[in-house]
Write a structure and sequence with these properties.
This protein is mostly helical and 122 residues long. The chain is 83% helix and 0% strand. The protein folds into 2 domains: 45 residues; 68 residues.
Length: 122
């Protein structure tokens, strides 16, 4: 984790603690159950690191939503809207392909090495 990210997380957590201090609360357990849930959600968001899987999941959800919007635009005869949506969908598909390439390459190399090992053991 970069120093910048560590500082931003520490700053966010510091703000949460300052919020409690402003409420004259020494520990978050003094909060109501609902307030504790909110506090925990905020803390989770502040400390969460975006992962590649998070990004892939987001992109897949966007593709599904855009595909639905595209179908609706086509059905409604909104050609210009359909073109804009199709362009966005193409962009998301290109990004997903780019993110999937290392995995595909890794699987291909593993398959090739496995084949070489199998062939040499005969």
């Amino acid at each position: 984790m970069s120093e910048h990210k560590k500082n931003r997380i520490a700053h966010g957590i510091g703000l949460l603690k300052q919020w409690l201090a402003n409420l004259e609360i020494k520990d978050y357990t003094e909060l109501s159950e609902q307030e504790q849930q909110t506090y925990n959600e905020w803390e989770k968001v502040i400390t969460k690191e975006l992962t590649l899987d998070d990004l892939k999941s987001f992109l897949q959800k966007q593709q599904v939503a855009l595909s639905k919007q595209l179908r609706e635009a086509v059905v409604e005869g909104e050609e210009r809207k359909a073109l804009r949506i199709a362009a966005r969908l193409d962009n998301y598909e290109a990004i997903v392909e780019m993110l999937a390439e290392p995995e595909r390459s890794r699987e291909t190399i593993i398959a090739n090495i496995t084949s070489l090992i199998t062939t040499n053991n005969k």
